[in-house]
Write a structure and sequence with these properties.
Layout (H helix, E strand, L loop, with lengths): L1 H11 L2 E9 L11 E4 L2 H9 L7 H8 L3 E8 L2 E9 L3 E4 L2 E3 L5 E9 L8 H14 L5 E7 L3 H10 L2 E9 L12 E4 L2
Parallel strand pairs: 7-8
Antiparallel strand pairs: 1-8, 1-9, 2-3, 3-4, 4-7, 5-6, 9-10
Length: about 190
């Protein structure tokens, strides 16, 4: 009920994509029994063809265009989870562009297979992203999580992400027609 009221207010204000912003800690402790891989476009296509993941060519082309990386966690050879990390601005949804500061990367599209939830997979993904980040001249890792996605927010906080505030896109703000620009509210 509470979320429906919030969504209605946001709709009236023409605010889309209300998200809680988090900044990753410098280091994450994660279980060691899992293997990780930064997926190539071809490997992602194989996983999509097998039905394990559902991504279209537009998503997969982000890897080829060096816009995003996609990290997967495997338990032996079984897929346990996957997360995308934007390293540049990219088309988020039709008509909107997610803007990424060039010094940062931003996690999105976290998917953990049901049988692996609660087993530290998110931490493994973040630890791998932090390793990639440090060797690719990025200063930090952000997450922008929908305000009503309590499970992902709880997972981020458990790993050690620090809440920065809220970001949103509003169609009423001039000069942003057709572009998803983030506006930041510092919650102190």
């Amino acid at each position: 009920m509470k979320n429906r009221i919030v969504h209605k207010i946001l709709s009236i204000l023409k605010i889309k994509f209300l998200e809680v912003l988090y900044l990753a800690p410098n280091q994450v402790t994660a279980p060691l029994e899992f293997d990780t891989a930064i997926l190539t476009a071809e490997r992602l296509r194989e996983l999509a063809r097998s039905g394990l993941l559902v991504y279209g060519e537009e998503d997969i082309s982000r890897i080829e265009k060096s816009i995003s990386i996609c990290i997967a966690v495997f338990d032996q050879k079984k897929l346990a989870g996957v997360c995308w990390y934007a390293i540049k601005g990219y088309p988020h949804t039709v008509g909107y562009i997610a803007h990424i500061h060039p010094d940062y990367m931003c996690g999105y599209g976290l998917q953990i297979m049901p049988e692996y939830q609660g087993r530290g997979i998110h931490g493994v993904l973040v630890a791998t992203a932090l390793d990639w980040m440090s060797s690719n001249n990025k200063k930090g890792l952000l997450l922008a999580i929908n305000f009503d996605n309590y499970a992902s927010r709880k997972s981020a906080e458990k790993i050690g992400f620090r809440r920065l505030g809220l970001s949103f896109y509003s169609a009423w703000i001039k000069g942003a027609a057709g572009i998803r620009q983030y506006y930041f509210i510092d919650l102190g």
